[in-house]
Design goal:
This protein has helices at 27-39, 57-71, 84-93, 105-109, and strands at 3-9, 14-22, 44-55, 76-80, 101-102. The chain is of the alpha/beta class and 111 residues long. It has one domain (24-105): 2-Layer Sandwich (Transcription Regulator spoIIAA), CATH 3.30.750.24. It has a five-stranded mixed β-sheet with strand order 1-2-3-4-5. Strand 1 and strand 2 (14-22) form a beta hairpin. Helix 1 (27-39) runs parallel beside helix 2.
């Protein structure tokens, strides 16, 4: 399955809606998009993972790398994820303590 990326702006953040599978084959596409956004000066990212069907260790690595990139510019990268199977991956790997994870876009934007 392919990976889809849709980007849009809110008042203070850039939202990247991710769909499909984030794996060894598709993760570079997400990494490149995050790098492109940071390069353009977007340092407040919100990654919407509600459309993600699969996430492997390569995808986790891309998310951690993206977080490091935005933090280098005093930015932030938060996630939207309510899927139990993905949340379990973040808990098992300890990344649930690294990322701020919101249940919904409305929840993320109300903070």
């Amino acid at each position: 399955m392919d990976l889809t990326l849709r980007t849009r702006e809110t008042a203070d953040r850039t939202i990247v809606a991710v769909g499909g599978e984030i794996d060894v084959y598709t993760a570079p596409k997400l990494r490149d998009k995050i790098s492109e956004l940071v390069g353009e000066g977007h340092h407040q990212l919100l990654i919407d993972m509600e459309g993600v069907d699969f996430l492997d260790s390569t995808g986790l690595g891309v998310l951690v790398g993206g977080l490091k990139k935005v933090r280098a510019h005093d930015g932030s990268m938060e996630l939207i994820c309510s899927q139990d199977r993905l949340l379990k991956i973040f808990r098992i790997t300890g990344l649930a303590k690294v990322f701020t994870i919101h249940d919904s876009e409305a929840d993320a934007l109300s903070v």
